[in-house]
Design goal:
- This protein has one domain (about 50-120, about 130-135, about 145-230).
- Helix content is about 10%, strand content about 55%.
- The strands form three sheets. Strands 1-2-3-6-7-9-10-13 form an eight-stranded antiparallel barrel. It has a two-stranded antiparallel ribbon with strand order 4-5. Strands 11-12 form a two-stranded antiparallel ribbon.
- By secondary structure, it is mainly beta.
């Protein structure tokens, strides 16, 4: 995730430099807005078991392209449909291991002193669908926006890592992770800086993932910043 963090902030720097340039443009009555996006979020686990806790800083990085399709004459309302990539980590005390039969088993790490790292991460291809409202005009490039919608994701890689008294344990492609993820999104703000929220509508893990027979039914909640560029 470190190299993604570096790449992300390089991209944000480019976006900010671009948006701050004083570029003279011809007025375009058929203009479109905000077709590239980059975001960073703090990731939370909602609806988690009472005994499960998060620790450390869980990050998400998001990049993509959205086709902006205005739906009114003023072009301040639009539908956005896009494609993107998302990398997410979740630091917590859910221990993922395998039994003698090769099946994944789950338990809670009760003592934080016995390990130095315990997390899982996901990488997704995403399809955002948004209703977009903004105060932009053909000649005004700094404006307020409210974008709301739904985002569909397909998990291409999942990884769990543990480092502690039991050694180093790493698993990839755990089939107990739901391949498809979807949730509600909201981005709102002015000019470059926009608050972004994602609320997952389904569980990260399937009903095969249980602790003492109880399903681990947590969902993803992401809160952070989203940056846009034409």
């Amino acid at each position: 995730m470190r190299y993604l963090f570096f790449i992300f902030f390089c991209l944000i720097s480019i976006i900010r430099c671009y948006t701050q340039e004083n570029i003279i443009k011809e007025v375009d009555s058929l203009y479109k807005e905000d077709q590239f996006y980059a975001g960073i979020t703090y990731n939370l686990l909602g609806n988690r078991p009472k005994s499960l806790n998060q620790s450390g800083f869980s990050l998400g990085f998001h990049l993509g392209f959205i086709k902006d399709m205005p739906i009114n004459k003023k072009r301040n309302k639009a539908i956005g449909l896009g494609i993107g990539y998302s990398a997410n980590s979740y630091n917590q005390d859910l221990f993922i291991n395998k039994d003698n039969a090769g099946n994944f088993v789950y338990s809670i790490l009760a003592d934080t002193e016995t390990y130095t790292k315990n997390k899982f991460s996901t990488h997704l291809i995403e399809v955002p669908l948004e209703f977009r409202w903004r105060t932009s005009t053909p000649s005004e490039y700094d404006f307020w926006r409210i974008y709301m919608g739904i985002k569909f994701g397909y998990t291409i890689v999942n990884t769990s890592k543990y480092e502690g008294d039991l050694g180093r344990i790493k698993y990839t492609s755990n089939n107990d992770f739901n391949k498809f993820q979807y949730g509600l999104t909201l981005s709102t703000g002015y000019n470059t800086w926009n608050i972004h929220v994602y609320y997952g509508l389904n569980s990260i893990l399937s009903d095969k993932a249980t602790i003492n027979g109880e399903r681990i039914d947590f969902n993803a909640i992401k809160i952070g910043l989203m940056f846009y560029i034409l």
